[in-house]
Specification:
about 25% strand, Jelly Rolls, globular, seven-stranded antiparallel β-sheet, alpha+beta
């Protein structure tokens, strides 16, 4: 299937970025990223194409890598020396399943969409990078997260600042994306507000029940976020994650890959950004 047939190019002219409507699209999304850390495009994928993309990965659900563990939002940092009740010592449940790129069948549409140069150039311009390349990682360049009933993605910060996702399916209850834009900065972690986020009392939490077919770009390195627990549902939450890098040929460290494909044998300090 041609990637151009999947996307509503009349609404989102990513194939003509140098035209006035293409430039306006990019400018608007960059403004949204700067203002609120999140830029999203509802209805990015055409409805019939969305059903086909879901059908492409649904048979892989039983093979997906299971995760169910406690994680800290600060897993990449030294969290020793902090009191037990400090946010740096907080642990949150992280549960769900992951389909990795190596599990996709040869005729899958997904690699063609992910590697479509038009899409990569669009992402590059919105994120404002000089160069951008699809990750070459055979496992994590293209992932699908599945959160079924009672699953959740724990509060965390990302280790990069340009997460790209495509929501494919929403659960019947719960599973909203929640975030606090730019909570931390280079000089202050703002732990008091982080504690309020964790206990649910922060007024800065933004909750977005995104609709299937929404393409999103998110600055998560300084914006704490999570997927809220999924409630009673007949279908899981399903989202695709695209990985890019400013340099060609990027692959993830072995420990990062292992945390996804063999989580029970990985130290409980965190999981890859998502």
């Amino acid at each position: 299937m041609d990637p151009s047939s999947l996307i509503d190019l009349d609404r989102y002219p990513i194939d003509r970025l140098d035209a006035p409507d293409g430039r306006a699209l990019v400018d608007g999304l960059r403004h949204d990223l700067d203002a609120g850390a999140l830029a999203f495009l509802p209805g990015f994928i055409r409805p019939q194409a969305l059903a086909a993309l879901v059908a492409d990965v649904e048979p892989l659900f039983p093979q997906a890598h299971r995760r169910d563990r406690m994680r800290t939002p600060y897993g990449w940092m030294d969290n020793s020396g902090f009191p037990e009740d400090h946010p740096r010592r907080a642990m949150h449940r992280n549960s769900g399943r992951t389909i990795t790129r190596d599990m996709l069948v040869d005729e899958s549409t997904w690699p063609r969409l992910f590697e479509w140069p038009v899409l990569t150039e669009f992402v590059r311009r919105v994120l404002g990078f000089e160069t951008l390349h699809c990750s070459a990682d055979p496992w994590l360049s293209l992932e699908f997260h599945i959160e079924a009933e009672n699953d959740q993605l724990a509060w965390h910060y990302d280790t990069n600042d340009g997460v790209v996702s495509l929501l494919l399916q929403s659960p019947d209850e719960g599973g909203d994306f929640e975030h606090v834009p730019f909570l931390r900065d280079e000089n202050d972690e703002h732990y008091d507000e982080v504690a309020r986020v964790f206990d649910g009392s922060s007024e800065r939490i933004r909750r977005l029940p995104l609709e299937p077919g929404t393409f999103a770009l998110f600055r998560g390195r300084r914006s704490i976020h999570r997927v809220a627990p999924v409630g009673h549902t007949a279908k899981p939450r399903l989202i695709a994650l695209f990985s890019y890098d400013r340099e060609p040929g990027m692959v993830f460290p072995e420990a990062t890959v292992k945390a996804v494909i063999d989580p029970d044998d990985t130290p409980h300090t965190g999981t890859p950004a998502s």
